[in-house]
Amino acid sequence: MPTQDQIVARIKKKQQELLNFEPEVLIYYLDFDHVRELLQVTTLTREKWQEEVGYRTPLAEARTYMAEYGWPKTLGHRGISAERTIQKMAAWAFLADDQEALRITEETDYAQYGAPILWALCLHWGFDVPGDAAVTRMASGRACRPGCEEGCGQ
Question: From CA 90, how far away is CA 83, in angstroms rounded?
Fold first, then answer.
């Protein structure tokens, strides 16, 4: 796992980008002192932060998010939500210190609402892939169905 200072540096870098959602994931992997300094919150207590953070593991969170939000947003042609999923997957890959997964999020074509990226990450991490024919088509860079006019075939 990256150091606290490395997580803070990535948060600050990503906060400079328009519509970047990685900080939403990264912040919960900071200890109390780093989060308090970063957010400049004086009312946050160590106990409250520990209660909020709980025990988290990057790949467990990624698996749950992929199944509950990632694939549904991609298959639903939800542009910003699908991009949000890819960014969150990149954050969890960073936290897991998984360079191959980071490479997948950065170098795989985003076509079809990120389906090729999600497919590659699921294979890499051993996550389940929905058994829907649309998933297979979208992951290979094709429209979810012939004649789709919702943007995934363009």
Answer: 11
Question: Hey, what amino acid is at 28?
Answer: Y
Query: How deeply is 72 buried, as exposed, middle or buried, from its count of CB atoms within 10 A (0-12, 13-18, 19+)?
Result: middle
* Full pLDDT tens readout for the chain, 154 residues: 899 999 999 999 998 888 899 999 999 999 999 998 888 777 888 898 888 888 889 999 999 999 999 999 999 999 899 999 999 999 999 999 999 999 999 999 888 999 999 999 999 999 999 988 999 999 998 999 888 887 776 5
Minimal CA–CA distance to 57: which of 84, 29, 33? 29
pTM value is 0.91
Helix (H) or strand (E) holding 42: none
Cα–Cα nearest to 33, from 20, 25, 22, 44? 44
Backbone region of residue 132 per phi and psi (left: phi > 0; alpha: psi in -120 to 50; beta: other values)? beta
